[in-house]
Amino acid sequence: MQPGDRVRVERGGVTNEGVLLPSTTRDHLVVKLDGGYNVGVDREAADVEVVESGVREVDPAAETDDDGDATSEITFDEDLPTVSLISTGGTIASTVDYRTGAVTAQFDAEDVLRAVPELAGRANYRGRVVANILSENMEPSIWRDLAAAVAEEVEAGADGVVVMHGTDTMQYSASALSFMLDSPVPVVFTGSQRSADRPSSDNVMNAVCAVEAAKADHAETLVCMHAGPSDDACALHRGTRVRKNHTSRRDAFETVGAAPLGVIDYGAAAEAGADGDAADAAIEWNREPLPRGDDEGTVGVESDLDGDVELVKFTPGMDPAAWDYLDGKDGVVVEGTGLGHVHTDLIPRIEELVEGGTVVAMTSQCLAGRVCDRVYDTGRDLLDAGVVEAGDTLPGTAKVKLMWALANRSDPAEAMGRDLAGELTEESRPWR
Length: 432
Prior knowledge:
Residues 1-51 form the GatD N-terminal domain. The chain is 22% helix and 25% strand. It is of the alpha/beta class and 432 residues long. The termini are far apart. The strands form six sheets. The protein has an eight-stranded mixed beta sheet, sandwiched between helices.
């Protein structure tokens, strides 16, 4: 019985048939079912029949150490660019633990290359772990650690950085680093909606495109994820303008209010390999990206954050007393309706917050368009109460921006109405 054989495995009255795959442990058989999914079975408890030998050519398992654990070695080529792979957890570099059936995240560069072998030969890789968390557990303190790690990697000579991150809060982290870092090289966030054992996994394509985007000639902080339902292209979204708009689709991420900053062709990216020029040729920019810096070893870092900021969503029927917990906050971002409205009865409550020293910024619940509180009476009353208009800044981005502005700008209210990192598009005004 060898990897590549078609086998029939029976255990506990359940029979599975498929192609035997290499396993990283001696205790479990791994079988690729006809539907594309993998199943792990306890070797000792299973009855195995070889149905047909050598039906598939399967790459041999990674070399193992004395304990039977898979190993790999990263070699450096002076002719290749260096890309730093920074992990915070997430699905993209995950593998299946066939002992439990659960997906487990892998973290160092060797693990990533084992999970996504298509990355080999594209760059020299350095790997480091900033966090090992589910992305819903992301916190501002980890953003600071992540910013410091990116800066250290660039100052140590990395030509680009890929941040592997869970998708649920990736947009917040990308926004945070957009404000915190002035990087001379690309910082590319990527993740995976579906784990590697699923036939529709997006981990390989997203990882390959992210590495090629990190090698290209720009200095943007981007989110790189599937551009559509097919495996043909990844969208490159500016970190402050992106939003996860679907729970499970592979093309869940969208640039709100515009086309993505760029699109990278997967076929061209896959063929690019070590050729840096080919990496640039694979990208079609919809708008001019930030250029790489002249001094690629120097990173501007302003990573202080004021954590005393809340994002609150107005809904009809909301009790003004529900806002009592906002008393004394340094900042509040409001998701208002339409052009930026709340119930009239809430305006005195907001005025009290402003008078108490809280910066209150208004955003909209709408997915596109900008706040304009000069159209209706409610909006004008909000402005009189001291609310700051955040234009078309996305609510989540506005919260991160206000946390950053309170800690790094002398006039955070003024900063909320001004574009700092591509988060706020210029308002179109009629000719006068």
